[in-house]
Protein 1
Amino acid sequence: MTRVIKSRINKLREELERYSHAYYVLDDPVIPDAEYDALFHTLQELEKDHPDLITRDSPTQRIGAAPLDTFPPAVHEVPMLSLGNVFDASELEAFETRIRDRLGADQEIGYTAEPKIDGLAVSLLYEGGVLVRGATRGDGFTGEDITENIRAVRSVPLRLLRPETRPEKLEVRGEVFMSRQGFEKFNARARREGRKALVNPRNAAAGALRRLDPNETAKYPLDVFFYSITNLVRQTSVRTQYGALQYLRELGLKVCAEARQVSGYRECLQYYEEILNRKTSLDYEMDGVVYKVNDLDLQEELGMVSRAPRWAVAHKFPAQEVMTRVTDIKFQVGRTGALTPVARLEPVFVGGATVSNATLHNMNEVRRKDVRVGDEVIIRRAGDVIPEVVKTILKPDAVRSDAVQAPGACPECAAEVVQIEDEAVIRCSGGLFCPAQRKGAIKHFASRTAMDIEGLGDKLVDQLVDEELVSSVKDIFKLTKEQVAGLERMGELSAGNLMQAIEQCKRTSLARFIYALGIRGVGEATAAALADHFRDLSPLMQVHAEQLQDIPDVGPVIAENISVFFRQPYNQEVIEGLIRAGISWEVRAVAEHHTAPLAGNTYVLTGRLERFTRPQAASRLKALGAKVTASVSGGTTAVIAGVNPGSKADKARSLNVAVLTEQDLLAMLQDE
Ligand code: 9MJ
């Protein structure tokens, strides 16, 4: 009996899934709503009589879970990357040139071009074909577990199609958004019923997806497009990004219909123009298009820098512009002492947000645009970039205020303002005596990508410095719970949490620590390269600028900044204080000579290898102490050339650098 019921239930579920896939994913309904509802009701009744046969992936179980207090953290096994941006053809061409140089490629690069949906990035995990987890992006490494809310998005299948081809474990990524039509319908109804309307689709989608009660999430018309699979290469025969999109579709996951394969950056530009022209007729909001190197092996070889893949880039749509009036112009002092002129504005709504400040960049720009207090101006906002003043609109007989003058003294500490020759910026000379610079340095130190002290945000840093509880980063570690609890908007609980976060940040990595020091020009990628090269802080602290030249991303100016930074007694004292406070990282030993037979040798890999991917070959060589670089120079020990080696092998020959084969490489790896 139960066997019969079980098979009836299974058939009903499959049928309902098929109809719902046709309706929500393919946008092509195959049965009338009333018929669907009747089948759904039958399934509900059967499950009511046989509760032991209810499964999590049954269509009846999609929503209804209890509200949460908070979202638990969800760690991403593969980090969720962000994308670099380009804004015009020349930046796109430069992107392609970088890729070709890195790959030593002579032929055209193939891309998949996709609309860039302006929603919320999510990562979904399917095990045995069943949805087991949904997570937000968070900081790229840890997001929030929003499984129940993701289940409330109707176009997300609770169970994948094609059981015969799907991998046991599949992690897919995509963008949750609200369609324009869904947004309009929701608002029309809200207005009819006297409820508050939503401001814009993006904020509405973000708000809905982060409701603690999944039953609330279910009330919003959320939708999703998937665009990547994290664990693809090893599990399937898919070899391209475009193939990945097709495979996602076969599994029943919704994919944007506008994705295309293109070749070379010129075809990327054609695609961009086409999508831009059709922007308003498509039913979802986009902030640009994305180009991804199509070949997944090449993607792997290109790898990433900081948080962004080298193999993809977002080409942003032109910014939105509006008019408003300048009410004041102030100079803001940044972490490095740079004084940035900022226009205070009569608030305007642009690109989904209210803007009341816009940057004027520097004094040269202020003079060139001749922006003055009281002027009517055009301001521009592009994506999440800081709004800027584009130009002043002059009425013929307008009475204007005086031209803006660069301040002679820092508005924060009254120290003299200096301008370095050839530099557009003016700087406060107060160094770390200037409270604004101190605040900037401390905010940077505590920020998520640096020491990641949760709870130590900008407002709290301002208070701590103003109250003279903290004057340098090392003072953070001398704070007591009582001191913190006594501050505005703080209490016992938040003070306790902060103390815990401060304690936790002490165990860190060398790369984070170097980055957190805030050396001018040393971003995350450079800090990681320095940590990789020096493995501990003391050798880096004694370095001379010229010894830094071999490190990727370090040019002469940054090399000088680094060596000057570590020579300053004040900085040495702060670093000592931090280490005394208990900050530590794992010191990675430089391989001993007998385990590093290739130490001192530098190789360049080019062309396709038969036995390895290039990253695999590189990591085998590095394990033996060798360096592997992207370009050939006189210092290269040898170029290892696979099939279709391209220009790097030619360059090696012209420089009298040895060109080895994959056989030679194998012999080298086996010998050692
Ligand atoms: C959006 N937002 O539509 C990516 N995205 O790829 C598409 N975002 C992405 N791809 C790698 N289509 C990181 C982000």
Note: The pocket of 9MJ is lined by residues 81, 83, 114, 116-117, 175, 227-228, 290, 312 (CB under 6 Å).
Protein 2
Amino acid sequence: MAKAKTVFVCRNCGFESPKWVGKCPSCGQWNTFSEEAVVKTSGITDTIFGTGHSVPVKLHEVDYKSQPRLDTQTGELNRVLGGGLVRGSVILIGGEPGIGKSTLALQVALAMVNYKVLYISGEESVQQISMRAERINRRNDNCYVLSEISLQPIFNHLQQMKPDILIIDSVQTLQDENLESSPGSISQIRECAGKLMKFAKETATPVFLIGHITKDGTLAGPKILEHIVDTVLLFEGDQHYMYRILRATKNRFGATAELGIFEMLGDGLREVENPSEVLINNNNEGLSGIATAATIDGMRPFLIEVQALVSTAAYGTPQRVSTGYDVRRLNMLLAVLERKAGFKIATRDVFLNLAGGLRVSDPALDLSVIAAILSSGVDKPIAKKMCFSAEVGLSGEIRPVTRIENRIREAGRLGFTSIMISGAYEKINMPGKEHIKVIKVNRVEEALKLLFISKE
Ligand code: TYD
Ligand code: MG
């Protein structure tokens, strides 16, 4: 028998090479090549049901509003999708194992009671799915489950059942029998995702694909999948905390800046509509090393607690440990603190932590980081009900941040009585009468002097 033709494919970007190579010439990743059987991919002219007739229409006659979005009955998901589910769209939900992707998908399936939902799992038996449904404690008489990994039977069921919504858990377990390669290989993922995309467009059925993330935080077979689907949602969070963030990194039907916040409870995911209330702890008042920042992630302002611990280094090199905040940025702020405020930090350990296990990259956190470190260093609590929202520059200047009005309003709404911001704003438009005092500062030295003075 002739030897089957094989090709080496990069698991990251799908680049093909006749020989094995250590470094991908296309995406630059190391050790990502694996051998796969050569496949003839189906051409664009094939259709799944043989009914793919599209007709050109005049652009100005297209009425996008006549296609209403489906309500997923999950406010946080609707928000990330850009206002609900678009018919015929393919949404990839990526995340590490155990983060809650299956829970989220099943919860949405059970919440959309007015639609016929088909949940296909290649990872779990229908009994396991039923156990999870029992835990979530919701019921949708129109929700069907199927444990299957082969594409052909799946399409047969789809043709018979005509579900309104399809969920595939996960895309890495799918297998097209016409291909020789194993499930999870690049050619399988590409082919299966492509066919499901075609199904979604031809039948106007929204499809959720669940995808695993590799250890280094990228989707397995990422670039290829990202190009195929309409929307990529990443489900992230720390396994040891309950909070989960759903973030859109690509969305053909909405903004990518949106994020949804959930909390994993014993009976499923709870939507967190008001993140500030869970991220700041009112019992911490009067403790040193704690500062509250008014931040914006995506489109949403919320307040988050920054905790710092400064202690004498036990061993030679002092440690700089940061959870949720960029450690290089922390090092930069420490240098600013040392140079501009004369705060001696070289022989001390610094630990920094953001509440709830969240990761925030908003530069507006800078001033609160500095405040928390100083507060811990001198062991004095920061003034009651004071919060911060400003970036700190290399020469110790306090810089303005975006959408300051929203931040001030959110701080005022949560009962803060003062907020420290940059003095560089010309005018701040605050429509309502916020009972919050705005403290403007221009330099770190100036800010640090005001930290412990209560404005109440
Ligand atoms: P799961 O949805 O299976 O994660 P994924 O599909 O992303 O791999 O859920 C993972 C974790 O969530 C699991 O450790 C159990 C926990 N969990 C709860 O805490 N509460 C619940 O109601 C459910 C269903 C799961
Ligand atoms: Mg799962």
Note: The chain has a mean pLDDT of 87.
Protein 3
Amino acid sequence: MTHKILILNGPNLNMLGEREPDIYGSDSLEGIGVACQHKGQTLGMAVDFRQSNEEGELVTWIQSAAKGYSGIVLNAAAYSHTSIAILDALRAVDLPVIEVHLSNIHRRESFRRHSYVSQAALGVICGLGAQSYLLALDALARILDEE
Ligand code: CA2
């Protein structure tokens, strides 16, 4: 069976590659999406890659993953640090979740060190740029294989 994986990106990540390359790297979000599609193919997984600037839309997408998806990779961006709504949605769908960040949130401002998303995640990968996403797909492939 081909596993479907939902990869969600939160606010402002649509600007990747255009600003702050010293923090977030020079890859565009579209480029990261293409790399994730390719990685998914090598792992036998179908990747659905999306971005939204709206908390409610992210919550709706997480809820709808309950039907037909096997796992979630989530970079909730700033909502990682603020959103109990996203945490509640993740808990409700009960799918394996890997939290990712491009930057190392532990080397930055102290308010970035706490993530609500982490409380629902099986694992957290940060600081490796686009590779954070690819490693998350590897991790999900292993987790789903073992199920
Ligand atoms: O490192 C990450 O992936 C973050 O999730 C990115 C968020 C930040 O709030 C988190 O603490 C860590 C911010 C995304 C903003 O993306 C931009 C991209 C280009 C230019 C400006 C912002």
Note: The first strand starts at residue 3 and ends at 9.
